[in-house]
Amino acid sequence: MKGGFSQCRSVLITGSSRGLGLHMVNMLVNSPQRPNVIIATARNPATAQELQKIVESHPGVNAVTLDVTSQASVERAFKEVASLVGPGGLNCLINNAAVSMSTDLEKVTAEAMLKTFESNAVSPLMVTKAFLPLLRAAAAQVPGMGIHRAAVVNMSSVLGSIQLNWGSGAYRNYAYRTSKAALNMVTRCLANDLGSEGILCMDLHPDLGGPHADLSVEESVSSVLSVVAGLSEKDHGGYWDYSGKILLW
Ligand SMILES: NC(=O)c1ccc[n+]([C@@H]2O[C@H](COP(=O)([O-])OP(=O)(O)OC[C@H]3O[C@@H](n4cnc5c(N)ncnc54)[C@H](OP(=O)(O)O)[C@@H]3O)[C@@H](O)[C@H]2O)c1
To answer: What does the pLDDT look like over 23-57, one tens digit per residue?
Structure first.
């Protein structure tokens, strides 16, 4: 991971039970420039064994229960996180939790569309809205833009790009693609609303497979965290991939 999180006191990653979220937590805790407080949220931390091992062996890493689709769960998590971060607030919120189901034209159903939209587009907005007091508390402390101050990173996907979804070879997935396109719009709306308060908002496309599968998981996660570590005003409201390349909406 280039750059580091040394200027970032606290980070929260949703969906840390497995996959990219778990890998990000693991890489951050082992980084010499790690944030003081790492909050790894999961629907059910008790059953996330790898996450539990990390929490048990690394002080300052906290597992918090959070089902991003449940407002009651979001409110309970907010209280817990507020006491973990204290008056310094939350510097970096990574909305990583998401679902993906196979929904080509044959398979797509209204239920799959709505469930995916709820998890991937509505929930990042509701989680961000709930945690705003903590992001604002962090933003009030220092000038500039980035994870040293306050940032919302929405894990989007290149599959949310409308411009890039063209041609017979395009990957067919109505629910996932639509949800990530909606997430991109949520991010732009948040960026418009929160930029003046110094809260950076951006979309990031990671890659743990697909056309760049020759990249190891460690390389992918390292690239994602390098982009997050280096965020500055120029990235606000943007749609970036893991290598720092701007994506077409
Ligand atoms: N993998 C890639 O190559 C790739 C590419 C582009 C974008 N992305 C995006 O990157 C992010 C992570 O992807 P991934 O590959 O790591 O996904 P993954 O392996 O499917 O993991 C998804 C995570 O989200 C959690 N989650 C789902 N619904 C949740 C809910 N209602 N509340 C809380 N947590 C919930 C899951 O928790 P449970 O264990 O409880 O199910 C799991 O921890 C996603 O936003 C994805 O769309 C990934």
So the answer is: 999 999 999 889 999 999 999 999 999 999 999 99
CB distance 68 to ligand 1 below 6 Å: yes
Ligand 1 atom 28: residue of nearest CA? 98
237 contact partners, CB below 8 Å, separation of at least 6: 187, 188, 191, 192, 195, 201, 202
- Residue 127 is classified by DSSP as H
Percent of the chain with pLDDT over 90: 89
Which residues lie across from 11 on neighbouring strands?
A: 38, 92
Residue 87 · residue 139 · CB < 8 Å = no
Domains and CATH numbers, the chain: 10-241 (3.40.50.720)
Map residue 201 onto helix, strand or coil. strand
Task: Kindly give the distance from the C-alpha atom of residue 207 to the centroid of ligand 1, in angstroms, as a whole number.
Answer: 12
